[in-house]
Amino acid sequence: MTPYFLFCLLITIILIVFLIDSLLDILNARHYNNQIPEELIDVYPKEEYEKSIAYKHENFKFKLVSSTISLIIMLLFFFLDGFAWVDSISRSFSDNPIIIGLVFFGIIMIGSDILSTPIIYYKVFVIEDKFGFNKTTIKTFFIDKIKSIIMTVIVGGVLLALILWFYEITGKYFWIYAWILVSIFTLIMNMFYAKLIVPIFNKQTPLEPGELRDTIKAYSKKVGFQLKDIFVIDGSKRSTKANAYFSGFGSEKRITLYDTLIKDLNNEEIVAVLAHEVGHYKKKHVIVNLLLSIAVTGLTLWFLSLFISNPLLSEALGVKIPSFHIGLIAFGILYSPISEVTGLIVNMVSRAFEYQADNYARDTYNSEALINSLKKLSKNNLSNLTPHPAMVFIHYSHPTLLQRIKNLRK
């Protein structure tokens, strides 16, 4: 295989992935106006349904334009030897391969962030604002961005530096040490995400004493779920969209409710949502998802170790001096078809888990309360009630609303 052939292969993979994603979006858009199934006829009043269709079309056009712009920028970077240019800048700072790699990815990250910021800004302050979702101020938007950059530099920089160091001292066996490192990091994030990361962006407060808290406590006691505390997060600071999630395990497990969820749903519906989250814990989904994530990471790093030392990866991107950081870029593209397959498997497992959690809520609490909550959340989020089956199969981590309702009413 020659560097030119590998270069053409990389470009081909990029174009195929773009075309498949675009085709799925187009097929999905053709389903927006489909007749609403009888089970979902009460989700939207007519005016709201028309609004949901308009919202989906707006997002479809936005994604098509933004992804096309991203594709053009990426292709220009390939054909104009952009990676070789960034590599030469990085090497002007040091001869140390770890520092060179950190500077290289730092430049790539900053450049990518600069280019993506206007796109994200338009999404938040034009589209989301137009349809009444956005509550983010410009100040909050940019403060969030600065915080994210600082976190990425500190956490991402340390992880990357250690992986580069492992590669320098162990060669092709670096993937074992990198896998252990990433696995430990993933475990820590699963356990302490709500304590370490969430407070940087959001305010969390214990749910106030009252009927809702008492009902949740009573349900938790009934099903033998030892709940340390229930927290409310100020999601309304950024959006009107509602959510709830379960995090941690062991003594660190907690349930977090968005304040918008408490506003949109009644107490019975909120407890039904929590019953679903408790179902994930009781069915060991948290542990299985963690192990699955670690397994996929190990597989990826092992594949990386087979190719990373091949100078063809660097030469294909126009870089004369082979390096880990350039090889990582080329490998990331080459691995994307396999990544799509592993992502497909992960989504299939996730959808199966959602059915199981729904069943647990049905069996231990109230299926109709959960159905009502799902309908309200779909309405308030202007969700797509008639997605294309191919889009669901490839990209959905949750079953569709119709599928969940049919399952709950079995």
TrEMBL record:
Please give the Gene3D superfamilies that the UniProt record associates with this protein: Metalloproteases ('zincins'), catalytic domain
Q: Which residues form the CAAX prenyl protease 1 N-terminal domain?
A: 31-203
User: What cofactors are annotated for this protein?
Assistant: Zn(2+)
Example GO BP: CAAX-box protein processing
Which residue windows are transmembrane per the record? Answer: 6-27, 64-86, 98-125, 146-167, 173-193, 286-304, 324-346
Free-text comment on the cofactor: Binds 1 zinc ion per subunit.
Boundaries of each Peptidase M48 domain copy?
Answer: 207-410
- Positions of Zn(2+) binding: 276, 280, 354
**How is the protein disposed in the membrane?**
Multi-pass membrane protein
Q: Where in the cell is it found?
A: Endoplasmic reticulum membrane
Please indicate which superkingdom the organism of origin belongs to: Bacteria
- What are the UniProt keywords, alphabetically? Endoplasmic reticulum, Hydrolase, Membrane, Metal-binding, Metalloprotease, Protease, Transmembrane, Transmembrane helix, Zinc
From the UniProt record, which GO molecular function terms apply? metal ion binding; metalloendopeptidase activity
InterPro entries in alphabetical order:
CAXX_Prtase_1, Peptidase_M48, Peptidase_M48_N
Provide the active-site residues from the annotation.
Answer: 277, 358 (proton donor)
Q: Which family does it belong to?
A: Belongs to the peptidase M48 family.
What is the protein name given in its UniProt record? Peptidase M48
